[in-house]
């Protein structure tokens, strides 16, 4: 039984798809697309040299073009902060005296436990403070 080369290229593309799914490394997907390009070259009747060239050129081109774009997008902070990240930088009102050991604030309409970032600093009820961090269920204020 003689299997055509294009079938082997498609088997190779599917085999490259497995580590893509398991590791979530997009490079494997780009190599799989290169293998599909080689399968197309084979199905069109080109010889092995052209098939390998199609695989290499398409794979390298995808990696060279797509990886930098993906890296740029993953390095950017999300435009919309959610959860705890959305609370950092917000202002809050002190409800019960806040110092290094604790206290209470009203933040985004909810009562939070809080402590002062500066251990020597104390904030009295009614003062406005800035939330600089959230540690668990405690707001760190300044």
What is the gist of this entry?
The protein has 4 helices and 5 strands.
Structure in words:
The longest helix has 28 residues, at 48-75. The protein folds into two domains: 5-75, no CATH class; 84-141, OB fold (Dihydrolipoamide Acetyltransferase, E2P) (Beta Barrel), CATH 2.40.50.140. The chain contains four helices and five strands. The radius of gyration is 28 Å and the shape is rod-shaped. It has a five-stranded mixed β-barrel with strand order 1-2-3-5-4. Helices cover 49% and strands 24% of the residues. It is of the alpha+beta class and 142 residues long. It has helices at residues 5-23, 26-43, 48-75, 84-87, and strands at residues 91-99, 102-107, 110-116, 128-135, 138-141.
């Amino acid at each position: 039984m003689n299997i055509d080369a294009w079938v082997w290229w498609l088997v190779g593309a599917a085999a490259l798809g497995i580590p893509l799914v398991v590791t979530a490394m997009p490079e494997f997907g780009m190599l799989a697309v290169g293998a599909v390009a080689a399968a197309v070259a084979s199905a069109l009747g080109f010889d092995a040299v052209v098939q390998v060239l199609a695989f290499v050129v398409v794979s390298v081109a995808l990696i060279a073009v797509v990886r930098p774009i993906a890296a740029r997008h993953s390095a950017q902070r999300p435009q919309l902060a959610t959860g705890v990240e959305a609370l950092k930088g917000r202002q809050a009102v002190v409800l019960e005296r806040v110092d290094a050991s604790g206290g209470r604030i009203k933040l985004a309409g909810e009562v939070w436990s809080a402590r002062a970032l500066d251990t020597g600093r104390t904030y009295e009820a009614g003062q406005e403070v800035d939330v600089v961090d959230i540690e668990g269920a405690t707001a760190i204020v300044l």
